[in-house]
Specification:
Largest sheet: 3 strands, antiparallel
Radius of gyration: 15 Å
Number of strands: 5
């Protein structure tokens, strides 16, 4: 499935909807991209704590961040870990980022993702 975003810029919130937050959250509501709503609700209903998500807006790589204590459960549920270019302060690579199952990833999304991180200086070409 592709997301339904049209002309939604990465970093904007124009495609988000407000969901009643699960009991584990200290917030009353949590906003998510509309095309990830059902998948996020399914994760919450399965007891998985999510920390953030983005559908990629048909431009960049979509992702769902999952709380560290639930990473193994996400893998058991068939989620595939995504390489996250960000590292923790101690230099360890983040392992909390997963591809959503509900959005098809295409090669152009990888190209846009890499070009973005090159443009902000996080990746360097050799």
């Amino acid at each position: 499935m592709n997301c339904n975003c049209r002309d939604v810029e990465t970093g904007t919130y124009s495609n988000q909807i407000k969901l009643k937050a699960p009991d584990w959250s200290s917030h009353e509501f949590i906003c998510v991209d509309a095309c990830l709503k059902e998948e996020i609700l399914n994760l919450w209903n399965s007891g998985i704590i999510t920390l953030g998500c983005c559908c990629g807006h048909n431009y960049s790589l979509p992702f769902i961040n999952i709380a560290e204590e639930h990473i193994s459960r996400a893998i058991e549920m068939g989620y595939i870990m995504q390489t996250n270019p960000l590292s923790y302060e101690n230099g360890d690579k983040r392992k909390d980022t997963f591809y959503p199952k509900s959005i098809d990833v295409n090669p152009k999304m990888f190209e846009n993702f890499i070009n973005h991180y090159i443009s902000v200086g996080m990746f360097k070409l050799k």
